[in-house]
Amino acid sequence: MAGETIIAVVGNLTADPELRSTKNGRSVAGFTIASTPRTFDRQSQQWVDGDALFLRCTVWGDLAEHCANSLAKGMRVVAQGRLTQHLWEDEQHQKRSSVELQVDEIGPSLRYATAQVAKAQRGTAGAYGNPYSAPAGYTGGAAAADSLPPSDPWGTDQATSSSSFGSFGQPAEPEPEF
Asked: Residues with Cβ < 8 Å from 35, sequence gap 6 or more?
């Protein structure tokens, strides 16, 4: 949506993601990311921690379930999303506000850790995992996944691939000699 404030934040989860469901059965997960800036103090020749930012985050749908299954307290993560502000009035009739990150993308930070990625085996096709944007009759590319080696969860078997990209990415014919 135009005009939204998009940010990326790197930090540690303060607790395990809390997975819930709405009345309509849609999954939602909530968690907090603590991001603490560090600067080098040349006088003391030491690293100094700044004030921590604690950012409340919300994630929806399949991504919420993936977060609950994959992330845990203390993990360093990289999250990207849209800042939203909530306004309300407390019991003393004071106007209050809070800022929250609606997470669009999240994953573990690989700066101090390694990760093993496994592709989710759900029927979410379409642009950016949105099942509603998939072409009619498209059920995803998981059919060829059974013949792939387990060491390459993102690969595609070119012999059986029915890619809609045509010959894009395949070796070009050799150029004629001049």
From this structure: 9, 10, 11, 12, 52, 53, 55
Contact status, residue 111 vs residue 135, Cβ threshold 8 Å: no
**CA 33 – CA 15 distance, rounded (Å):** 9
Across the strands, what pairs with 21? 27
According to DSSP H, which parts of 51-175 are helical?
61-70
Look at strands 38-41 and 76-89 and give their pairing. unpaired
* Dist. CA 31–CA 67, nearest whole Å: 10
Per-residue pLDDT of the chain (178 residues; tens, 9 = 90+): 677 889 999 999 999 999 999 999 999 999 999 999 999 999 999 999 999 999 999 999 999 999 999 999 999 999 999 999 999 999 999 999 999 999 999 999 999 888 888 888 765 444 444 554 444 444 444 444 444 455 554 555 544 444 444 454 555 566 666 6
CA angle 148, 151, 156 (to 5 degrees): 35
pTM of the model as a whole:
0.65
